[in-house]
Target: Aminotransferase-like plant mobile domain-containing protein
Amino acid sequence: MSFGECTITLQDVAYQLGLPVDGRYVSGFLTDFHVYIDGGRPAWQWFHELLGVLPLANQIQKFAVNCTWFQETFGECPEGADEETVRRFARAYIMMLLGTQLFADKSGNRIHIRWLPFVARLEEMGSYNWGSAALAWLYRCMCRVANRHVVKLAGPLQLLQSWIFWRFPGFRPAGYDAFSWPLASRWSGYNPGISEKGPRVQMARLKIDLLQARDFIWMPYSTPDVLQVVHPEVLEPRHTMLWWCVTSLIYFAVVEWHQVDRVLPQFGGVQPPPHPALNIDFLMSQEASERLCP
Model:
């Protein structure tokens, strides 16, 4: 921007989505996935054991299952279901949440079975760094879409949209003044019509070209009305100290860099002349094949 750099950080992930930003890496060995999963057991056999049912062949694309199958099969947990049935529905719901919201691909309608090792141990789901992984995936998707030949954007787009609305008041839709926790839920009812897409895009581009420093809110989370709805655990020092860290963000083979040293005003700091941006092209070159990455 003409007034300085700004970006989505782990702080935004914590406030907007309420996700943990520390914990175990969301990663794993996906090469020959069917061989190495859970000690050599066939992946689809494990799928059946964890979810109690297998999709038909026409619902499977490589190691991904159509989202419609999940919705039709696990749309509503039966009343009075036993504990094992509830756990199966919980696993399916979490896989849908991960595959269509936080780590969606451009299709938006497939769920990869890479999540089996995670949902197999439901009690450990909270020990993973989901916030860092989601931000890594968003960074990578935004990098990809910068290529003029790429026409669709994947990733946690609700995070991107909410970050824009919270920090750029001029882009906010009218009528969404009330908010609760997590902050991204503020815009849950927002659904712009496609009939005005052309003029809306042109107007947004013009607004971006005319942006001034006064049009950006550096610290939107410091107001009392925001602090009173935030979950108190988010503000614990063991979490907040990570917002300032210049570190790697990891999501399977995706490795991105959290360069908050270039956006210190977002944390109430004064921005000195930044060092040259870290070149991580060598990390992106490691993301070789589709079977290794999302």
